[in-house]
Amino acid sequence: MISHKNFKLYIDKNYQTVCKAAALHIVSHVKTTPRSILGLATGDSPKELYKSMVFYSQTMNVSFSKVLTFNLDEYIGLEENSKDSYQFFMNEHLFKHLDIDLSHTHFPLVHQNIETSLRHYQTLLETHSIDIQILGIGTNGHIGFNEPGTPFNSKTHIANLTESTLKNNQKHFKDQAHLPSQAMTMGIDEIMRAKKIMLFASGKHKKKPIDDMVNGPISIDFPASILQTHPNVELYLDLDAAEDLLKLLEIE
Ligand code: F6R
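A: This is the predicted complex of the input protein with fructose -6-phosphate.
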């Protein structure tokens, strides 16, 4: 582990290794705090983490039955139960492999009245304090779907997805005829209220965003840069994603 500014860095050539370390930390937290509140992300970055969380929950015999979860975001405009939804993703990659109570898992409710739904998620996040927030990072610096230009004091809102986000995410869609252009996302203020943030990234396409997040100016033009002001943030990176960051650390 290396400390740099307010960030704790866990870096390994093998992404699986850092994800295992993170999973062990989270499952141990749930063991000692069965009513843990977890903030969860989807996408490629946390898949390996979730696989290892399932492994440790089984081998360490840790129950998730009292855990509460809040997902960062959900697409708008997909059919209910769509295989492209983030709810489906979470069931496939994590929930169905744990003894978690599905009524304890929360998503922005995109199939109900939007205004009511936004208020509902905002209230839930005001009244529940997230212990550990899992994050990935977009190549444009988004966290959740807080795209560049989103105010740092934002709460749960509707985001218009940028060209770069649409392009990056298109490959994941099973139904290429119905690509959503909007999502409901936790706001930056709600993400920043988490007691601990664990951000995951792998691959060379993440090396610049990771470096900009840690060393660039703090600006709404690069939303993840706000993490420079969080007191407890850990980065789990493979060597490719850490490349630019490590170059700089050697120069220092
Ligand atoms: C997903 C999310 C997004 C992703 C980001 C990186 O719930 O909120 O911010 O974390 O787009 O995606 P991947 O991990 O697929 O590169």
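The chain has one domain: 2-249. The chain has a mean pLDDT of 96.
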